[in-house]
Amino acid sequence: MGKIYTIGFTQKKAKEFFSLINHEDIKTLIDVRLNNVSQLSGFAKRDDLKFFLEKLCGVDYEHAPELAPTKDLLNAYKKKEISWEAYEDRFLNLMSQRCIEKTLSSALMDSGCLLCSEHKPHFCHRRLVVEYLNDNSELNLQVKHLF
User: Fold this and answer.
1) Domain topology for 2-146
2) Is the Cβ–Cβ distance between 112 and 27 less than 8 Å?
3) Helix (H) or strand (E) holding 143
4) What is the 3-state composition of the chain as percent helix, strand, coil, each rounded to the nearest 5?
5) Can you spell out the DSSP letters for 55-114?
6) What tens-digit pLDDT sequence spans the chain (147 residues)?
7) Where are the domains of the chain?
8) pTM above 0.90, yes or no
């Protein structure tokens, strides 16, 4: 049984974001965004984030695009062409097609923290990744959402 965390960076200032990371036993921040160089928040761009995590928190950074939705799927949900329920179903099917339970390192996931942009996990694929892994692998991850 491992512990895993999730966090979103929107609605957080850098101080709050890195304080949340620092107060937990996180080894690696696993970026599950499709686009990790977005303009949404300066501190959350790939290179800046990697630097700040290392210097401020002693945490490694890993980009895992295989845990992100496809651009088409994400756009369909954002444009309200599909419901959350349809998005959720298609995303979980995508994780199954990608066989993430077989390709992800259990060491990476243990004390890892999944990062996405959504403030809360309720309508975010980072929550779905953990649920999928718990249903389809022997990882038995205990999740703590940081927000």
Assistant:
1) Cobalt-precorrin-4 Transmethylase; domain 1 (3.40.1010)
2) yes
3) strand 141-146
4) 50, 20, 35
5) III--EEEE-GGGSPPHHHHHHHHTTSS-HHHHHHHHHHHHHHHTHHHHS-HHHHTTEEE
6) 689 999 999 999 999 999 999 999 999 999 999 999 866 677 999 999 999 999 999 999 999 999 999 999 999 999 999 999 999 999 999 999 999 999 999 889 999 999 999 999 999 999 999 999 999 999 999 999 999
7) 2-146
8) yes
